[in-house]
Amino acid sequence: MNARREPGYEFDKTSLMEYNHMSFGGPPVTTETIEEADELLRSDEKESAVEAEVLSAPPKLVYSRLLLRFTRKLLLAVVDKWDSHVLTIDKVAPPKWKNKPAGRILEFCILHLAMSEIVVLGTRHQIVINEAIDLAKRFCDGAAPRIINGCLRTFVKDFSGSSVAQASDANQKFDMVLGILAVAQHFKQTFR
């Protein structure tokens, strides 16, 4: 099935089983002996080779169609809401991040992804915030997970407040339409 989608590419699917999708950086590693250091180096090289195999393979061979569709939806949502989220991020991000945005590109990308997933895709904010924190733990410096958590919680609080206002406006419009329909129905019956 996958072979016809990517002709000529050989992908060892056993490497998917070996690949650690949740490998987070940890504290610095120390060794007591040269043998331990050599063993650790061999282990890291093996993990790097597996990671290179998985990450360089065509996405259609590695990821399910469901995941690829979700990824496409999420990226389109990010593009769609980019401008409004830039303004929101400018309000919730700490001044240190705004002064050097190039140094915080990963953090800003995580915020854009999370905000788009909440607003456009409708994923529950608790899930999205936890995923964003996990991404920050894996790819950003030590303070980023806490700051991203705070930024997203502020965003959710502001967003849910505006959503309630929008829902209230929608309910008022719906009530008005129902009233107009009732009047129209009354006139229709009166002038028969």
Automatic annotation (TrEMBL):
Residues 71-157 form the NusB/RsmB/TIM44 domain. GO terms for molecular function: RNA binding. One of its GO terms (biological process) is transcription antitermination. GO terms for cellular component: chloroplast. SUPFAM superfamilies: NusB-like (SSF48013). Keywords: RNA-binding, Transcription, Transcription antitermination, Transcription regulation. InterPro entries: NusB-like_sf, NusB_fam, NusB_RsmB_TIM44. Signal peptide: none annotated. PANTHER family: ANTITERMINATION NUSB DOMAIN-CONTAINING PROTEIN, N UTILIZATION SUBSTANCE PROTEIN B-RELATED. Belongs to the NusB family. This is NusB/RsmB/TIM44 domain-containing protein. It comes from Hevea brasiliensis (Para rubber tree).
